[in-house]
TrEMBL record:
Coiled coil regions in record: 127-232
Entry protein name: NYN domain-containing protein
Record organism: Nocardioides lentus
Keyword Ligase: no
Keyword terms of this UniProt record: Coiled coil
Length: 430
């Protein structure tokens, strides 16, 4: 017998799912699979899928019997508890799984054909996604170009207005300088006249006190006129200088604003900055998924205004009080949350799993102010209810999910929520 080819991952998963559905129907369950035989079909495939495939690969009799049961179920059109879709032999995955189990003549070719068809389908889907992404990128680029052209036109208009204002200010500055030159000439003339008056006063000093008083008065008048001219010239110079400074500030601010609007950043940073940022973001995401945040981080999250606290009820209560009944666990948890909610003001909802219960619990635990209690609907686990509550919250709000379930934590992190483990909340409630 030739060595069995290695199964493609998709075919291996389908074999595990189909075999997990029919495992309880075996007359004799192999010893290696008895531990998972009592699991629900979905969990049986998820937890023991690899082990199921390994046992079937080694045990030809068991593989043949499982192949018969799987063939009966596929021919009957059954779906199975794992959620794997039922189908006909034309389905490449089902056909490959059936061939691998039954091992008819040419079954290796059937498995290889299924792998080829799956690869082709994946390539087609990738091409469609790439085409859609390219179209979206081109549309965004077109809109960005239109917005940029509009902004550029507006900035050019503003720049033209500023240039006209600069021209006006330059003309006014030239006029001020002309007035300053005229004032200087008048000042020089007054100084010359003052010197002439002084010489004349010295010349006629001997003609009498009256003439001296007249000349002194004339000198005072000329000095006052000289001071007024100097003051006027200085004020004109100060006004002209102020206008020039205001003009330069306006031009500088307009240039900076234009640069911001045209998205012309300075050459800052280094080529590795973006990679470092992605690595840091992955580290943050990993921290959120693994629930490393402790009591201090949870306290800080709940201190944010209008924080939303979602608690996976039994995940926390079974960690804290596994020895008591579920009813006592619910009562203890809701009572313990009261002081924390009163102190932080967080909007708090505790979700208890009632998926397997047809009737609701007879009495709901007494809840403190600000604490709401939800039971999941029949057939729906609490994890799915918590996921729906997380998705319903708007982006940007502080949403904190308390659960040690890694699937719940990963879902919360993907939707922008903070995920912390049950021990962190229990430390705050202690």
């Amino acid at each position: 017998m030739s060595e069995a080819p290695e199964l493609p991952p998709a075919v291996r998963d389908r074999v595990a799912a189909l075999a997990a559905d029919v495992l309880p129907r075996l007359e004799t369950v192999p010893a290696r699979l008895r531990r998972i035989a009592d699991f629900a079909p979905a969990r049986r495939a998820r937890v023991g899928g690899g082990q199921i495939v390994a046992v079937l690969a080694d045990d030809a009799a068991t593989r043949a019997r499982v192949g018969e049961l799987v063939a009966d179920r596929l021919d009957a059109g059954e779906t199975g508890g794992t959620g794997a879709p039922g189908g006909t032999a034309e389905d490449p995955l089902d056909a490959a799984a059936r061939a691998w189990l039954a091992r008819p003549e040419g079954w290796e070719r059937t498995v290889a054909d299924a792998a080829t068809r799956l690869d082709a389908r994946a390539g087609e889907q990738a091409a469609v996604r790439e085409t859609r992404l390219v179209a979206q990128a081109e549309d965004r680029a077109s809109r960005a170009e239109d917005q940029l052209a509009q902004v550029r036109g507006e900035r050019r208009r503003q720049l033209d207005e500023l240039r006209e204002e600069v021209t006006t200010l330059r003309r006014r500055l030239g006029e001020a300088r002309a007035r300053e030159r005229e004032a200087r000439r008048e000042l020089e003339g007054a100084v010359a006249e003052l010197e002439d008056a002084r010489r004349e006063a010295r010349h006629v000093a001997g003609e009498g006190d009256a003439e001296r008083r007249r000349l002194r008065t004339r000198v005072s008048e000329l000095e006052a006129a000289n001071a007024a001219l100097r003051r006027t010239g200085r004020e004109d110079r100060d006004e002209a200088g102020l206008r020039v400074r205001v003009l330069l500030d306006s031009v500088a601010e307009a240039a900076a604003g234009l640069r911001r609007e045209l998205l012309l950043p300075s050459a800052e940073g280094a080529p590795g900055d973006r990679l470092e940022q992605r690595i840091a973001e992955r580290a943050v995401d990993a921290s959120a998924v693994t629930g490393r945040d402790g009591p201090a981080a949870l306290e800080q999250y709940l201190a944010v205004p209008r924080a939303r606290l979602l608690v996976d009820g039994y995940n926390v209560s079974k960690t804290a009080w596994p020895e008591v009944s579920l009813e006592d666990q619910r009562t203890r948890l809701t009572r313990a949350l009261g002081p924390l909610v009163a102190r932080t003001g967080a909007e708090t909802t505790v979700v208890f799993d009632a998926a397997a219960s047809v009737a609701r619990p007879p009495t709901a635990p007494p809840t403190p102010r600000g604490v709401r209690v939800l039971f999941s609907p029949p057939g729906v686990i609490a994890d799915d209810v918590v996921a729906e509550l997380v998705e319903a919250e708007p982006t940007g709000r502080m949403v904190v999910v308390v659960s040690s379930d890694q699937e719940v934590a990963r879902h919360a992190a993907r939707h922008g929520a903070r995920a912390v483990g049950s021990p962190a909340l229990l430390a705050l409630l202690a």
